[in-house]
Amino acid sequence: MGLSTHVLDTMHGTPAAGMGVALFATEGGHTRCLKRLVLNADGRHPDGLLLDHTEFKRGHYRLVFAVAAYFKARGVALPEPNFLDEVVLDFGVADPAQHYHVPLLVSPWSYSTYRGS
Fold first, then answer.
1. Residues in the chain with pLDDT < 50?
2. Where are the domains of the chain?
3. pTM for the whole thing?
């Protein structure tokens, strides 16, 4: 079915519009960048799915969210070094026939994620 993400900024109570995200495939210690994108006003990929059913394969993936850059762009004063710079989520896909939704709830000081629907 595909892979999607959605990022919510819990500090401001808004979608994380403008946050940079990179998607990688990982295998045997090697990573391959599949795409880089900037989240839209709703905190989602402007084109919808990150990977559709034709591209989505069984295996390991990594999403990298540019958290510090996003909050700095919003004018948040962050310490140096930042507590969170990038949030890296490694996850596995056992059944690419299912939809995998990987949301991120984030502030400059914390984050949480889960497999959504």
1. none
2. 2-113
3. 0.96
